[in-house]
Specification:
The complex is a heterodimer of chains A (about 50) and B (about 775). By secondary structure, chain A is mainly α. Chain A is built from 2 helices and no strands. In chain A, about 60% of the residues lie in helices and about 0% in strands. Among the domains of chain B are: about 100 residues, Alpha-Beta Plaits, CATH 3.30.70; about 100 residues, Calcium-transporting ATPase, cytoplasmic transduction domain A (Distorted Sandwich); about 150 residues, HAD superfamily/HAD-like (Rossmann fold); about 100 residues, Calcium-transporting ATPase, cytoplasmic domain N (3-Layer(aba) Sandwich), CATH 3.40.1110.10. Chain B is about 50% helix and about 20% strand. The two termini of chain B are about 25 Å apart. The chains are: A mainly alpha (about 50), B alpha+beta (about 775). Chains A and B meet through helix 1 and helix 2 of A and helix 2, helix 5 and helix 6 of B.
Chain lengths: ~50, ~775
């Protein structure tokens, strides 16, 4: 059972990273335009800007 | 730089003009030498407007970035200070075919919604994180962890769960404390009690090294409930922001004439009595006043419901909201702000609202019975166990288990989940519901009252007679009408364009307020206007049509007759509503003949004409007092008190500001089918919400005896609560199934961009 000493902190750390990533994405405005984001992925934006 | 009117598939509009002093409040700093400004762009309602606007603005020298928010129909632009100004950005957007207005999120109160949104999402994320981790630890305990390992896991769970409950549970705790301090009980009271008791009992058990801890139940519960709360908030915020935008777009001002003759643009709210205001043909009056100079005709349909314009002369009293149609006039403001006709109506409205008993949402009605019931059950369990000779510890555990299992997790989701699916669906078909209560009220409606002008009809006349008119005559008349803003002239021009005719260029056009237009073509004099103006005899009878006579030289005059056309599907909507068992009435301020015509055309038997705003209010009030649940559908300023007095209300997006604000539901697009559609979806939503309640309560009925018998282990509690929540959500999704959108109902935003073609080629 000694392995738990590593595993539990690792599990909590990974969960914490996920939570931090979510809060960051929320702060940086990625949930502001859900409709637009769905369409942006379909756009051809690889042409150079005029 | 002055630009001509910008065109958007034939729609003309004037680009917004920034006034020097005002601009600063919209601009914020975005780094050294960079400025940021946001615009509202209502026509950016299609996915291809994103690249169109972004590349169009990005091509300007000095623009660092432009980003469209499609949900909010906004553009945020970062530009180099000095290289380009906000006005150039607005003009560019105008050239691309978008009407743009600088926008400050603070002024519409949208920031508050956004903050609340982020707060709930953060709480949801914290609860989700805690639920996931605690559940992992709990699964190990259930699968047989013992002794020191189990204690370790319980301690770890406590360390994760307790801060998470303290953080993520706040929305419920605050609301429960609020309700209790007002002497009421809402759903948040049993929720808070359940979550807190589960946490404290588990902590107590952990300290004593006991077998059962309910940390997982406490955090999973919070997670599901926050999901429900977030959905509820999302729905209200979405509709509110759409309506706030409609309103902030029409914020108006007026051109004030200074004593030295100079003209200055002043926002409507800063107008004062005694100022002289120039009102161009086609503009709405910004305030009440007296005409000082100029003869004209006024379109009073928003105030009185009357579709025919009225002739006015200097000295006439005019009201805010009326449209000046024929000639420029100068108005001396006699009242602004609180003394206008409009504010009189606002007072009527607020008294109408006070008279209405507060609607109690279905979830809160249930909470009134639910909370006392479960608390009694818990107390009964405690006493029962004590009487049976169990110790205090076991008895209290059993009572707390009852409170945990009855914690209304599925109940908290039952209504928001259904309503958010339903309102999302209505939103996509162009119907914006202000909150869940409005949706519940739509389901209970038994009487529908329509206003006529602008609600059942489009509010703009169209030619109905003669249908067989020579193309020469129509082209000449349209040529004469082209320069006038009179509603009938515009209808003539539209009719000519519909038939593919080019209006003849007429020389020497003059507009004679109250009479009509005159001009010359190839030596012949032309006249268009009232019967008397063209030398036609008046006939005594009023058939409810609007008329324009046209005379060419010495020929016999031709009489054009116009009618305010019905909205598409108006008759079908009325029939559909009657089929649903609703009584339909027509309540208008217009002349009797015009009202009768429309009532007959759509099949409404009960029609009232010449109703003043007060009379409308009294009519709706009387029906309400007689126990009817009235859905008032109206658009005008004169309908606003009646809209506020109705059990619930709807307004088209073309309505006056005050009408849109007063109505609980606003629909976009031409078709009237939205009214029947909203009632139908409302009823369906209510049915499914009730099913959800039965499912959720049914779960409790099964689980409570187990809990009272002390058979609910943490595993049973976790499984029971998760499955009931999932079943309730799955049932809610059924609202989205099947077709509810009527054929002919229009896409959202169709009215802001009529018949708009894809703009990709133009980009």
């Amino acid at each position: 059972m000694n392995v738990l000493i590593y595993l539990i902190p690792i599990a909590l750390f990974m969960g914490g990273v996920g939570l931090a990533a979510f809060i960051w994405s929320l702060k940086s405005g990625q949930y502001d335009d859900l409709e637009g984001a769905a369409w942006r992925i379909l756009q051809d934006d690889d042409q150079p800007k005029p | 730089m002055t630009l001509p009117c910008c065109t958007l598939d034939g729609e003309y509009f004037q680009p917004f003009k920034l006034e020097g002093e005002d601009a600063a409040r919209w601009i914020s700093s975005a780094g050294p030498g960079l400025k940021r400004i946001e615009f509202l762009v209502p026509q950016a309602n299609r996915p291809d407007s994103m690249p169109h606007i972004e590349t169009g603005l990005g091509a300007l020298a000095g623009v660092r970035s432009a980003r469209v928010n499609l949900t909010g129909r906004r553009v945020a632009v970062v530009y180099e200070e000095g290289a380009i100004g906000p006005q150039a950005l607005i003009d560019r957007l105008g050239m691309l075919g978008y009407m743009a207005r600088p926008f400050d999120p603070r002024e519409t109160g949208l920031t508050k919604d956004d903050k609340e949104n982020a707060r709930l999402l953060r709480a949801l994320a914290v609860a989700g994180f805690a639920a996931g981790n605690v559940m992992l630890l709990s699964v190990s305990v259930w699968s047989g962890a013992e002794g020191a390992t189990r204690d370790l896991f319980h301690w770890l769970s406590a360390m994760i769960a307790l801060p998470a409950v303290a953080y993520a549970g706040r929305p419920f705790f605050y609301s429960a404390v609020n309700a209790l301090s007002l002497g009421r009980v809402n759903m948040d009271v049993p929720i808070s009690l359940g979550v807190l008791l589960a946490s404290f009992m588990s902590l107590f058990e952990t300290v004593n090294g006991a077998e059962h801890a309910y940390f997982d139940a406490a955090v999973t519960l919070l997670f599901f409930l926050l999901a429900g709360r977030y959905l509820d908030h999302l729905m209200r915020a979405r509709a509110r922001s759409a309506i706030a935008q409609l309103i902030s777009l029409s914020a108006e001002g007026a051109s004030v004439i200074e004593p030295d003759g100079a003209r200055r643009y002043v926002p409507a709210r800063e107008l004062k009595a005694g100022m002289l205001v120039a009102v161009a043909a086609g503009d709405r009056l910004p305030a009440d006043g007296l005409i000082r100079e100029g003869d004209s005709d006024l379109d009073r349909s928003l105030l009185t419901g009357e579709s025919a314009p009225e002739t006015v002369k200097p000295g006439a009293k005019v009201h805010a909201g009326e449209m000046n149609v024929t000639a420029p006039i100068t108005v001396e403001i006699t009242a602004a702000g609180n003394d206008t006709f409009l504010s009189e109506l606002v007072r009527l409205m607020s008294s109408a609202e006070q008279g209405q008993s507060r609607y109690i949402r279905i979830a809160d009605r249930l909470a009134r019975f639910y909370s006392p019931a479960v608390h009694t059950l818990a107390a009964a369990t405690l006493i029962g166990w004590l009487l049976l000779g169990h110790g205090w510890h076991d008895s209290i555990m059993a009572a707390i288990a009852v409170l945990i299992i009855t914690c209304p997790c599925a109940l908290g989701l039952a209504v928001p989940a259904v309503q958010v699916v339903a309102s999302g669906r209505l939103f996509r078909s162009g119907v914006m519901i202000k909150d869940g209560a409005a949706l519940e009220k739509l389901a209970g409606v038994d009487t529908v009252i329509f206003d006529k002008t602008g609600t059942l009809t489009r509010g703009e006349p169209a030619l109905v007679s003669p249908l067989m008119v020579s193309t020469d005559t129509l082209a000449l008349a349209a040529g004469l009408a082209q320069n006038s803003k009179h509603p009938l002239s515009r209808a003539l021009v539209r009719e000519a364009a519909n038939r593919g005719l080019h209006p003849v260029t007429v020389s020497g056009i003059a507009e004679h307020p109250g009479l009509g237009l005159s001009g010359h073509d190839m030596g012949q004099s032309l006249k268009l206007g009232s019967r008397a103006w063209c030398g036609m005899e008046e006939t005594g009878e009023d058939v409810g049509l609007l008329e324009f006579a046209f005379r060419r030289g010495g020929n016999a005059p031709v009489l054009f007759q116009f009618e305010d056309r019905l909205r598409p599907d108006a008759a079908k909507t009325v029939a559909a509503l009657q089929d649903m068992g609703l009584a339909v009435h027509l309540l208008s301020g217009d002349r009797e003949a015009a009202v009768r015509r429309v009532a007959e055309a759509v099949g409404i038997a009960t029609a009232v004409s010449r109703a003043s705003p007060q009379a409308k209010l009294a009519y709706v009030d009387a029906l309400g007092k007689a126990g009817k649940k009235v859905l008032m559908v109206g658009d005008g300023i004169n309908d606003a008190p009646a809209l506020a007095a109705g059990y619930t209300s709807m307004a088209p997006s073309t309505a006056s500001d005050i009408g849109r604000t007063a109505a609980e539901t606003v629909w976009m697009g031409e078709s009237a089918a939205a009214v029947a559609n909203a009632v139908k979806v409302g009823r369906r939503t209510q049915r499914i919400a009730k099913e959800n309640f039965i499912l959720a309560v049914g779960y409790n009925v099964l689980a409570v005896p187990l809990a009272m018998a002390g058979l609910v282990s943490p595993l049973v509690a976790a499984v029971a609560m998760s499955t009931s929540s999932i079943i309730v959500i799955a049932n809610a999704l059924r609202v989205g199934l099947g077709r509810t959108a009527e054929p002919g109902s229009t896409r959202p935003g169709a009215d802001t961009a009529p018949g708009r073609k894809p703009l990709r080629d133009a980009a």
